[in-house]
Write a structure and sequence with these properties.
Aminopeptidase; alpha+beta; binds coenzyme A; 7-stranded mixed β-sheet
Length: about 160
């Protein structure tokens, strides 16, 4: 079941991020972001979704791009390693898209690395209908490009 993330998910989502290779400083940033957004005092449009299969096994996080008309960023999508490759990421991303379309969003962007080790992640976005739109050479570090994928959000046949 995909549902809004709650503060009770925090420990499981930190463990998930740890399992997919987040560095300790990145885990700390993630903890702060969850605390800021789920604390009840946030008035932002950002949203988090949890894929719950008895316990959190996936997460997605989206934020609007400021000063645009309906452009959003997918800032995180991750599935627990032992549950990857079972269609969960695709279902989660589709749920994100439907949530955004219900909010009148127009475009969804997502960024990832151009390194060979990220090929499966890039294949995932391509299979979900995202096109490579831009490449910032040497963005993350020398030899490590940033690739921006783009999808226009339009209602699809079920
Ligand atoms: C990328 C990710 C969210 C995809 O979710 P998923 O549930 O594994 O993907 P699905 O089962 O819906 O789709 C499978 C397709 O995704 C791609 N894929 C990417 N990573 C994969 C993985 N680790 N295992 C299996 N398929 C993967 C493949 O193209 C696969 O298609 P195939 O079965 O024809 O080879 C997930 O694998 C993940 O969390 N990876 C690590 C974190 C990451 O890279 N996040 C994105 C950047 S923040």
């Amino acid at each position: 079941m995909i549902r809004p993330t709650t503060p009770d998910d925090t420990a499981a989502l930190i463990a998930l991020a740890d399992a997919i290779g987040f560095e300790p400083n990145e885990l700390e940033v993630l903890r702060e972001m969850l605390s800021d957004d789920l604390g009840g005092n946030s008035d932002s449009d950002r949203f988090w979704l949890t894929d719950d299969d008895g316990e959190p096994v996936g997460v997605a996080y989206c934020a609007p791009e400021r000063m645009t008309n309906g452009t959003w960023n997918l800032l995180l999508i991750a599935v627990q390693p032992d549950r990857q490759g079972q269609g969960r990421g695709t279902a989660l991303l589709r749920y994100v898209e439907q949530t955004l379309m219900a909010r009148g969003a127009r475009l969804l962007l997502v960024e990832t690395s151009g390194l060979p080790s990220f090929e499966r992640t890039r294949a995932f976005y391509r299979k979900c209908g995202y096109d490579e739109e831009a490449r910032i050479r040497d963005f993350y570090k020398a030899g490590d490009d940033k690739i921006v994928y783009r999808k226009a959000l339009v209602a699809q046949e079920q």
